[in-house]
Protein backbone atom coordinates (compact mmCIF):
# COMPACT_ATOMS: atom_id res chain seq x y z
CA UNK A 1 0.00 0.00 0.00
CA UNK A 2 1.14 3.53 -0.66
CA UNK A 3 0.06 6.88 0.73
CA UNK A 4 -0.79 9.81 -1.53
CA UNK A 5 -1.76 13.05 0.25
CA UNK A 6 -5.23 14.43 -0.48
CA UNK A 7 -3.93 17.85 -1.46
CA UNK A 8 -1.60 16.24 -4.00
CA UNK A 9 -4.51 14.24 -5.44
CA UNK A 10 -6.62 17.38 -5.85
CA UNK A 11 -3.84 19.41 -7.49
CA UNK A 12 -2.94 16.54 -9.85
CA UNK A 13 -6.61 16.20 -10.83
CA UNK A 14 -6.89 19.92 -11.58
CA UNK A 15 -3.62 20.03 -13.53
CA UNK A 16 -4.18 16.79 -15.42
CA UNK A 17 -3.53 16.97 -19.17
CA UNK A 18 -6.37 14.50 -19.77
CA UNK A 19 -8.80 17.01 -18.18
CA UNK A 20 -11.25 14.58 -16.61
CA UNK A 21 -14.29 16.11 -14.97
CA UNK A 22 -13.23 16.68 -11.35
CA UNK A 23 -15.39 14.62 -9.03
CA UNK A 24 -14.66 16.49 -5.81
CA UNK A 25 -14.76 20.01 -7.26
CA UNK A 26 -18.03 21.70 -8.12
CA UNK A 27 -18.48 24.78 -10.29
CA UNK A 28 -20.93 27.29 -8.84
CA UNK A 29 -22.59 29.73 -11.22
CA UNK A 30 -22.44 33.40 -10.35
CA UNK A 31 -23.83 36.35 -12.24
CA UNK A 32 -26.40 36.73 -15.00
CA UNK A 33 -24.21 35.26 -17.76
CA UNK A 34 -23.54 32.05 -15.82
CA UNK A 35 -27.21 31.83 -14.84
CA UNK A 36 -28.23 31.99 -18.52
CA UNK A 37 -25.62 29.36 -19.43
CA UNK A 38 -26.97 27.10 -16.68
CA UNK A 39 -30.52 27.56 -17.99
CA UNK A 40 -29.54 26.80 -21.59
CA UNK A 41 -27.56 23.75 -20.50
CA UNK A 42 -30.88 21.93 -19.97
CA UNK A 43 -31.59 22.24 -23.71
CA UNK A 44 -28.14 21.98 -25.25
CA UNK A 45 -24.71 20.80 -24.27
CA UNK A 46 -22.79 23.52 -22.45
CA UNK A 47 -19.37 22.66 -21.02
CA UNK A 48 -18.68 23.70 -17.47
CA UNK A 49 -15.42 25.53 -16.89
CA UNK A 50 -12.55 23.36 -15.74
CA UNK A 51 -10.43 24.55 -12.79
CA UNK A 52 -7.31 23.96 -14.86
CA UNK A 53 -8.36 26.58 -17.42
CA UNK A 54 -7.10 29.41 -15.24
CA UNK A 55 -3.44 30.35 -14.66
CA UNK A 56 -4.07 30.84 -10.92
CA UNK A 57 -5.22 28.02 -8.65
CA UNK A 58 -6.43 29.02 -5.18
CA UNK A 59 -6.89 26.21 -2.66
CA UNK A 60 -8.64 26.96 0.62
CA UNK A 61 -7.93 24.46 3.39
CA UNK A 62 -10.05 24.20 6.52
CA UNK A 63 -7.45 23.64 9.17
CA UNK A 64 -3.73 23.86 8.76
CA UNK A 65 -1.19 22.39 6.39
CA UNK A 66 2.51 21.86 6.71
CA UNK A 67 5.17 23.72 4.79
CA UNK A 68 6.08 20.49 3.01
CA UNK A 69 2.46 20.11 1.76
CA UNK A 70 2.51 23.64 0.33
CA UNK A 71 5.84 22.93 -1.39
CA UNK A 72 4.48 19.65 -2.75
CA UNK A 73 1.48 21.45 -4.29
CA UNK A 74 3.73 24.10 -5.87
CA UNK A 75 6.02 21.38 -7.28
CA UNK A 76 3.09 19.50 -8.84
CA UNK A 77 1.78 22.67 -10.50
CA UNK A 78 5.27 23.63 -11.72
CA UNK A 79 5.81 20.23 -13.39
CA UNK A 80 2.30 19.58 -14.73
CA UNK A 81 1.25 23.10 -15.69
CA UNK A 82 4.25 25.41 -16.17
CA UNK A 83 3.44 29.10 -16.06
CA UNK A 84 0.60 28.63 -13.58
CA UNK A 85 0.58 29.59 -9.93
CA UNK A 86 -0.96 28.01 -6.85
CA UNK A 87 -1.97 29.95 -3.74
CA UNK A 88 -3.01 28.33 -0.49
CA UNK A 89 -5.44 29.96 1.93
CA UNK A 90 -5.86 28.49 5.39
CA UNK A 91 -8.33 28.83 8.23
CA UNK A 92 -5.47 28.22 10.71
CA UNK A 93 -1.83 29.16 10.66
CA UNK A 94 0.86 27.15 8.87
CA UNK A 95 2.30 24.36 11.04
Question: Which key terms come to mind for this protein?
Answer:
95 residues; alpha+beta; two-stranded parallel ribbon; Sec1-like_sf; SCFD2 protein
List the SSEs and their pairings.
Layout: H1 6-14, H2 31-40, E1 56-61, H3 67-80, E2 85-90
Parallel strand pairs: 1-2
Describe the structure.
- With 95 residues, the chain is α+β, with helices and mostly antiparallel strands.
- It has a domain at 1-16 and 50-94.
- Helix content is 35%, strand content 13%.
- It has a two-stranded parallel sheet with strand order 1-2.
List the secondary-structure elements in sequence, H or E: HHEHE
Structural class by helix and strand composition: alpha+beta
* DSSP helical segment count: 3
Low-confidence stretches: none
Fraction of helical residues = 25-40%
Entry summary:
By secondary structure, the chain is α+β, with helices and mostly antiparallel strands.
